[in-house]
Specification:
The chain is built from nine helices and 14 strands. By secondary structure, it is an alpha+beta fold. It starts with a helix and ends with a strand.
């Protein structure tokens, strides 16, 4: 019995000593601090929102730098967020100027109505005239680009017409901007994307037709004009272009290829106030009449010249006939 009691005392002593030694070896762990999950993290202070005058000023600066798309967004924000303010009305005026150059009649009219009271009489008349010219078919500021030129890398499967449609311009303009004598382009080459329309000037005294692009004369051709002053001095717009045209003469319709059809290989219609005038720029089967004064009022070019001209002049180009 004594031995059993001694055994129990020894076991208890060993257990007590083990607990003391274990406390010396184990590193105490600090208690976990619980956080309130509902507590929100600190947030950054809200960004300053531009008011109408700031949006207008920033948009006008972008407009000066020819960053049209960015300026348009700021002007739209001013018109939408701050209607009826003076700055918003000025922004609407700038939008109207952008839209009329992009040939967007309905948007131009909408912005023109919103800028009332914030534009001068001269600005109103100029914008109204540009809108009227647009509705008649004349492209406003024919020699001025709507947007700055871009550089495009030609992709597999591209052609001039496809690239022009992709960038909302004309294949004729791409030919002028890149001085292309033919439509052959190569994958990987760089192409200048331009939005500037050419202008055609016909001098009756010089018997020459001039093509201007970005203010520079890039082509000139000898022409034949109307006898006895039948070719009028006026401004026209290049309309429909025809290959191998029939001639609607006083004697009836004479098909292309008939010896009596004198129109040659191409026809460019000349319009006035969106209406056909009966006048045109065309080729000829009588090359000896170029240069000269023999026609019934139309402007004649040699066939090779008029074929090249058709590749450079898109519909909507301003054609000025001067003395």
């Amino acid at each position: 019995m004594k031995k059993f009691i001694v055994f129990l005392l020894m076991v208890g002593a060993c257990a007590f000593l083990y607990s003391k030694v274990r406390n010396l070896w184990v590193v105490p762990v600090p208690p976990v601090q619980r956080t309130n999950r509902r507590e929100k993290a600190p947030t950054n202070p809200p960004l300053h929102k531009k008011d109408a005058p700031e949006l207008l000023a920033a948009g006008e600066a972008l407009l000066e730098a020819h960053r049209i798309d960015e300026a348009e967004k700021l002007f739209q924000q001013a018109v939408t967020d701050f209607p009826d303010t003076y700055a918003a009305k000025r922004a609407a005026f700038h939008l109207a100027e952008i839209y009329v150059k992009c040939k967007q009649v309905s948007k131009t009219k909408e912005m023109l109505a919103k800028c009332e009271g914030a534009i001068t009489e001269a600005e109103k008349q100029r914008l109204g005239q540009n809108l009227a010219d647009l509705q008649r078919g004349i492209r406003p500021s024919a020699e001025e680009p709507v947007k700055p030129d871009l550089t495009y890398v030609i992709q597999p499967g591209d052609n001039l017409i496809k690239i022009a449609r992709k960038h909302d311009t004309k294949a004729e303009i791409l030919r002028l901007a890149n001085n292309l004598s033919r439509d052959l382009i190569r994958t990987g080459d760089q192409l200048t994307i331009s939005y500037a329309y050419p202008k055609v000037v016909i001098s009756k005294s010089q018997l020459k037709l001039f093509v201007y692009f970005k203010g520079q004369m890039v082509r000139q051709y000898p022409v034949g004009i109307g006898k006895d002053g039948l070719t009028p001095t006026d401004n026209f717009v290049a309309g429909e272009k025809l290959d191998n045209p029939a001639w609607y003469s006083d004697e009836g319709v004479i098909p292309y290829g008939d010896p009596h059809n004198i129109l040659g290989s191409r026809w460019i219609d000349l319009k006035k106030d969106s209406r056909r005038t009966g006048l045109g720029i065309h080729g000829t089967t009588q090359p000896e009449t170029v240069p000269g004064r023999y026609s019934q009022g139309c402007v004649r070019l040699l066939n090779n010249d008029v074929e090249e001209l058709c590749k450079l002049v898109p519909e909507g180009t301003l054609v000025e006939i001067r003395d």
